[in-house]
TrEMBL record, chains A, B, C, D:
The entry's keywords: Hydrolase
Superkingdom field: Bacteria
Entry keyword annotation includes Ion transport: no
Molecular functions (GO terms): nucleoside triphosphate diphosphatase activity
Gene Ontology biological process: nucleoside triphosphate catabolic process
Species the sequence originates in: Crossiella cryophila
Phylogenetic classification of the source organism: Bacteria, Bacillati, Actinomycetota, Actinomycetes, Pseudonocardiales
Xref: PANTHER family: DCTP PYROPHOSPHATASE 1, PTHR14552
Protein name: NTP pyrophosphatase (Non-canonical NTP hydrolase)
Amino acid sequence: MSGFDELVPRLRAFAAAREWEPFHTPRNLAMALSGEVGELVAELQWLSDKEIREQLDGGALRERVADEVADVLLYLVRFADVCGLDLAAEAHAKIDRNEHRFPPLEANPSA
Amino acid sequence: MSGFDELVPRLRAFAAAREWEPFHTPRNLAMALSGEVGELVAELQWLSDKEIREQLDGGALRERVADEVADVLLYLVRFADVCGLDLAAEAHAKIDRNEHRFPPLEANPSA
Amino acid sequence: MSGFDELVPRLRAFAAAREWEPFHTPRNLAMALSGEVGELVAELQWLSDKEIREQLDGGALRERVADEVADVLLYLVRFADVCGLDLAAEAHAKIDRNEHRFPPLEANPSA
Amino acid sequence: MSGFDELVPRLRAFAAAREWEPFHTPRNLAMALSGEVGELVAELQWLSDKEIREQLDGGALRERVADEVADVLLYLVRFADVCGLDLAAEAHAKIDRNEHRFPPLEANPSA
């Protein structure tokens, strides 16, 4: 069990086994998501781009950032699930829209 | 192309075709992620849980929330990619840790 | 020293005495602000409105929320200062604009 | 009316005149605060420190950032008010605690 598609059923089972479903409203999960993104940003806030690069190559920062991105994804997957949204499909649909909104450089007629 | 695994190569190609790679530093992408989560939370901020439920069943709120979760996932996927992290694997590893940290109710010896 | 106006000089002196000024760029301070707001939201994320009310009347939640709002204000004051903005004046100017944008109920001609 | 202390009564009157008080719960205001900070961070997300400095000296970025810091302060003041917290006093108390937690460089015995 290591793919993205398994996250939805795993998180459903996790919440059910702990009777956490009543707490997993869209509002609460959006707030939890906001809190986790705050923690992720806080990991980087006093570091230069160069320091971030170096410390992401290994060690404590890498582990802390990996832990935070996991938390963000878990709350995002759970939020989308309780909202009845197919997260990966919405993301692909958004890239489709972005491709029209921001034409690639090759499409520049003067190129 | 609609699965989660295709998001990483699609976003790499998208950034490359627009020469946006220099902007896609971990810091910048973490900030962009924070901005998108703020927009998601803002969609729900004045609504009751009941109103959110009703309006998520269809209509404008559903579309706006779907658009925002897509943006959040896209920046999260891109952030993890430029950090060299396997997002789905980190999420599963985090659930593993959470299963130890928060034992399910069945595990309660007095039950 | 307990008024709002003293916060700007106190925070300048605090940063100078620790040689933290090079870290206090607008970007870094905006990120720090984002992190602190995430912590504030996280304090409330699993509680009902009723529980928040009760727990704000005293005890640990009140102290934690007080600590977080202080952190948010400190980073906001410092951010505005390094940006050369007069925070209180900007806030009053924004209320002025909001008064035009959202007319009060008394102004409704049909009332 | 341009000082910090006038913000609390102005915002109370503003909410009362529009009958917005029922919406101004701690949760809702914390979410609104989170959304505004997201907008502030988003203003800076693709700019270098040098670009931010230059564009803050005048022009559109300065105005947008001034507008966002005002929004953040307004929701923070309102949040603290409905929670029964004295925002400026909490901020000073936090600086007091930080002065103990992070001694200034002068206090270094080896200096």
